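--- STAGE predict ---
source: upstream dedup step, 1 unique chain passed
mode: sequence only
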Amino acid sequence: MLDRITRQHIVITTLLAMAFLPVISWFIQRLGNGSGEPMGFIPLTIALILAFRARNPTNLRLAEISLLLYGIGIFFLPPLLRSLPALATIAFLTGMHRSAGQFGLLILALPIQASLDFFLGYPFRVITAEGARSFVNFLGYAVDRTGVQLSLKGVIVSVDPPCSGLQMLWATALLTALLAALFRLNYRRTLYLSIIALTLCLLANILRATALFFPESGMISLPGFAHEGIGLLFFAGAAALLVACARRISKRQPRQKISPNISPKFPRRFVALTCGVVLTTLLPARTQTSESITAFPEITHYQGRAVEEIPLSPREESFARNLPGTLKTYRVGQDTLIIRRLTRASRMLHPSYHCLRAEGFKITNSIIVRDLQGRASLQYEARLNDEHFLVTEHIRDLSNTHQWTEVSAWFWHALFHPNSGPWEAETLMLPLH
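--- STAGE serialize ---
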């Protein structure tokens, strides 16, 4: 027979699972979106193993506060931000909050890689390009930088999205949280280690871009595997330095004794609060309304060819309802033209390759191309079974003053220059046979 406390724990666990069901469902959906989100299982597994071994004491009062914040946030927070108080509740109930490293691992389990790419992709590429320019100039080569492109005597080398360093940043964050957990660093010393880790990550990525500038510009010749090898070499160096720093920081930290975990007895107010949050999740979700614009210009021809508007699918209609602007799809001969117009900076403008990856397409051969007027576009190939497309995409303001080849660069411009819109994202899919 189960004792009273064990039965209470089973009931509370079941109620919390019901309360966090929206977050759990969102997390499962993100696993298949093609952006590498399943990597979050690595820190989650490590965090659970360390928490089980440590058995740190819980904090019911903080768990109640975070659960209350989660219940309130259901009405207005997006899923990613809504998941933070849910994770905090789990941390307070399992004792993970006692370890900065364990709590960091729990945060890294969130599906944040696509969001990092959206918000930090372009800024990190600019930092990397500027750092590489400085190092190459120091070596005696007069290199200029325009945006994320480096030029030397007419040869242009672009710091493309895979070279932004965000994958290295995520791996560095994982290593930092793991070291903080293993060396039992407190939050203040973990913050010191995180600052060191960020500095080492940026420096390693800049050195990688510097080293790759010479083969990419044609100055030297290296085998194909050298591109990944150079990146791994600099990351390994940064990781070794980070481990040494964590060891040094841990020696200066006085050891703290933590009383062993005792299974808590949940008060009635916690049970009542959990039931209230469960009922809150059953309420109708808040719906967003898109902003209307004065007019969407009718398109009759595209690049000299007649176009035919295609009705939106139910999924596209659902997406368009939340878009701060309009979405239309056209048939241009055998090609498909997708035009999205936005009136403000929004996370809803997804890169087309994210959408295609979510449908199972494999993205390859990503390059920057220019038309006869010198306008730049991102071009890549998308393949799924017998379907093979050449996709070209760019974003512009309607006055053609500014153009972008990636969403991240557009987002930051639109955020700080809201009056420069509206903007139009144009995606052309050409079937390849």
